[in-house]
Amino acid sequence: MSERPYIYDFSQEELAEQLRAWGQPAYRGAQIWDGLYKQLWAKPEEFTSLSKELRTMLSEHYRFTHLKPSITLNSSDKQTHKTLFKLPDGNAIETVLMRYDDRDGSQGRRTLCISTQAGCAMGCVFCATGQMGFRRNLSVGEIVEQVLYFARQLKAEGEHVTNVVLMGMGEPFHNYKASLAAIARLNDPKGFGLGSRHFTISTVGLIPAIQRYTKERHQMGLAISLHAADDELRASMLPVNQRYPIKDLIQACREYVEVTGRRITFEWALINDVNDTPEQARKLAALLRGLNCHVNVIPLNPTRGFAGKRSTRERVAEFRQILEAEGISCTVRVRRGIDIQAGCGQLAEAEGHKGQQPIQISN
Ligand code: SAH
Ligand code: SF4
Q1: 46 noted as active-site residue
Q2: 190 plus 237 within the same structural domain
Q3: What does the angle CA 320 – CA 326 – CA 329 come to, to the nearest 5 degrees?
Q4: Separation in Å, CA 214 to CA 4, 182, 261
Q5: What's the CA gap between 223 and 55, in Å, rounded?
Q6: pLDDT, tens digit (0-9, with 9 covering 90-100), for 22-75
Q7: What confidence tier does 288 reach under pLDDT thresholds 50, 70, 90?
Q8: How many H-runs (helices) and E-runs (strands) does the chain carry?
Q9: In this structure, are 48 and 157 located in the same domain?
Q10: Segment 143-153, tens digit of pLDDT
Q11: How many angstroms separate the alpha carbon of residue 340 from the centre of ligand 2?
Q12: Which of 19, 115, 158, 222 is an S-S bond match for 93, by CB 3.0 to 4.6 Å?
C-alpha cells in the first residue's frame, strides 16, 4: 500500500496550507481545487493549468486514485450500473448509478447511491451489508471519490450527477463526521457544487445522531428506515430498535420536521406476511398521523442470509391503499437493477461467498 496521503481526504484549507509550505502562491490552491472537483481531473498529469514542476510535486506527495473498480455490472435495461470497488486494504464497497428517463417526469435524473462504511454494524437481518458485519468506516475521500468516479463517466457522455443518496453500504450516522464532511465537500460551490437538497441521508434510526443533525439544521433530505410499526417486530428485524425504540424515534423525527420545516421520509421494505399486513399498515398510519412525511415502500430484495420473501403485488397495493386512505402519502419504489444484485451490499457480500451457490434472483 502506498504511503502517500490520499488527496481527497484533504479540505481546501489543508491543501492550501501544504501549497504555502511549498512556497506556492495562494491561487494555486484554488486551481488545484477547481481541477479536482470542477474539471474532475483524476491524475496529476491532467492538471495542465499548473507548471510541470508542481504537477510532479503533486504526484510525489499525494495518491489520487484509491478506489479500484473490480466488477461493474449493468442491468439488462442499461439504466442501472453497479461497481464494486476494492480499497487498498482489501475491503470492498459498492456504488450504484441509476438513470431515470425524462419520460417518467424525473427530468433525466442521474442518482448515485454511495457507501459510507465497508460492511455495517447494525445487523438488520434482511440486509446483505448487515449480514457481512462491520469492517470499517470510510474516510471522507473514499466517500467523495465514489461520486467523482461516476461523475467523470457521466461527464464523458455530456451528463452529470443530479442526486446523491447515502443508501449504499453502511450506516451514515454511524460514520457521522465523514459522511457530513463528504456532503459538504461535494456541495462546495467552488468545487463540485451539488446543492444540499440533491442529497439524501438514510439512517436506521440512531436517535442522538438525528438530534444532532436536527440541531445543525442541514438542508439535505432525511430518510428513516422504519420497516415495522411495533417494537417487537422492528427489534426482530432491526437490532438497533432494542436501543432506540419506535416511540422515541418518531419523537426525534417530529422534532426534526418541526425545527427544519422539512418533510421526512420513511422507508419500508415489504416482506411477505411479516410487515405487509393490514395491521402493520394501520399501526404505521397511526404512528405518523400529523407528521409531514412520505413513505417509500419497496418489495424486499432477497438476500442469501434471510429467508423472508418479498410481498406480492396485491399485498403491496393493499398496504399502500391503507396508508393513503389514512392520509399518508406513499410511493411504491421500483426495484432497480435486481438482475445485478443492486441492493445494498449484495455484491460485496456475494464476493465473500465465492465458490458457493449464487443467490437466485428473479424478477
Ligand atoms: N444504513 C442506512 C442506509 C443504507 S441501507 C439505512 O439502513 O437506512 C438503504 C436502505 O435499503 C434502507 O432503507 C435499508 O433498510 C434498505 N434495505 C436493506 N436491505 C434491503 C433489502 N434486502 N431489500 C430492500 N431494502 C433493503
Ligand atoms: Fe446497516 Fe442500513 Fe443494512 Fe441496516 S439496512 S444493516 S443499517 S446498511
Answers
A1: no
A2: yes
A3: 55
A4: 37, 18, 10
A5: 42
A6: 999 989 999 999 999 999 999 999 999 999 999 999 999 999 999 999 999 998
A7: very high
A8: 12, 12
A9: no
A10: 999 999 999 99
A11: 19
A12: 115
CATH number of the domain to which 289 belongs: 3.20.20.70
Give the rounded percent of residues in the chain with a pLDDT score beyond 90. Answer: 86
On the question of pLDDT at 361 being above 50, the answer is no
Mean pLDDT of 90-107: 83
CB 151 within 8 A of CB 38: no
Does residue 1 belong to any structural domain of this protein? no
**How wide is the angle at C-alpha 203 spanned by C-alphas 190 and 74, nearest 5°?**
70
Residue 357 vs residue 158, higher pLDDT: 158
Question: What is the span of the domain harbouring residue 192?
Answer: 68-354
Residue that finishes a domain, picked among 61, 82, 104: 61
Confirm if 344 and 302 have CB atoms less than 8 A apart: no
Give, as one character, the DSSP assignment of residue 172: G
Statement to judge: residues 92 and 172 lie in one domain: yes
Residue 195 and residue 334 in one domain: yes
Contact indicator for 58, 32 with CB cutoff of 8 Å: yes
Instruction: Please report, for the domain that includes residue 46, its CATH number.
Output: 1.10.150.530
Residue 290 Cα to ligand 2 midpoint, Å, equals: 27
- Does any domain span residue 259? yes
Spatial separation of the C-alpha atoms in residues 203 and 14, rounded to whole Å: 30
Q: Are residues 255 and 138 in the same domain?
A: yes
Residue 94 catalytic?
A: yes
Task: List, for residues 198-231, the tens digit of each pLDDT value.
Answer: 999 999 999 999 999 999 999 999 999 999 999 9
Residue located nearest, by CA, to atom 18 of ligand 1: 127
Rg (CA), the chain: 21
360 lies in some domain: no
2 belongs to a structural domain: no
Q: Give the residues surrounding ligand 1 with Cβ less than 6 Å away.
A: 124, 126-127, 167, 171, 202-204, 225, 267, 269, 298, 300-301, 303, 343-344
- 39/185 same-domain check: no
Looking at the predicted structure, is the pLDDT value of residue 100 above 60?
Answer: yes
